[in-house]
Amino acid sequence: MPRNANAGFTLVELLIAMSIMGAVSAFAVPKVIGAQQAIKLNSVGKESASMVSAAYMKYILDYNMGSGVTAGAFTPYMNYASIDTTSTSALDDSPAYGARDCTASNPCLRMHNGAIIQYEGSYNFGGTGSGQALFFFVDPDGSYSGTTWGTAGNGKALRIALKYSGRVTSMGASEVALCNSSYCLGAGSGWDPSWFSWSP
Known about the structure:
Layout lengths: L10 H52 L19 E3 L6 E2 L6 E2 L7 E3 L5 E4 L13 E7 L18 E6 L4 E3 L7 E2 L4 E2 L15
Antiparallel strand pairs: 1-4, 2-3, 4-5, 5-6, 6-7, 7-8, 9-10
């Protein structure tokens, strides 16, 4: 018997359609939200790297660069909301590491966008070679995730290196071992968190 042209969907048909839509949403929505969060964190990471690079350029307009320059010398040229030297477990470290404290020797710059940039204040370039660098930790969500391994969801910190030449790189993208007055890190030894990529 042919179906009536004016008839609508049955309740069973509607329930089946809604079940299919619910199943598709359950898989698609978290991926979309995760991708949007990763884009936001990546943007904060690049903005922070750009600020460090600009601070370097402004510094050399006022002073002579030397092997004994510390990361703290660049802070007057950075745009931040406050300096924190007392918070414990304030931010994430690089992937595979836990929390970092804000201390007098390793101050945290709290940014206007909620991110934290921490630098190791007691270390200097230690030399003028191409492998000499100062290290900055950029935690884009400004809080400790409570985990060791980084994902796009918890915002593990990005470790960026400011080379003596003024070039800024991430440790995951570093092609050579980088050293300062205290220690050396091999190329890619502080690999980039999953949310970060230099490409768009």
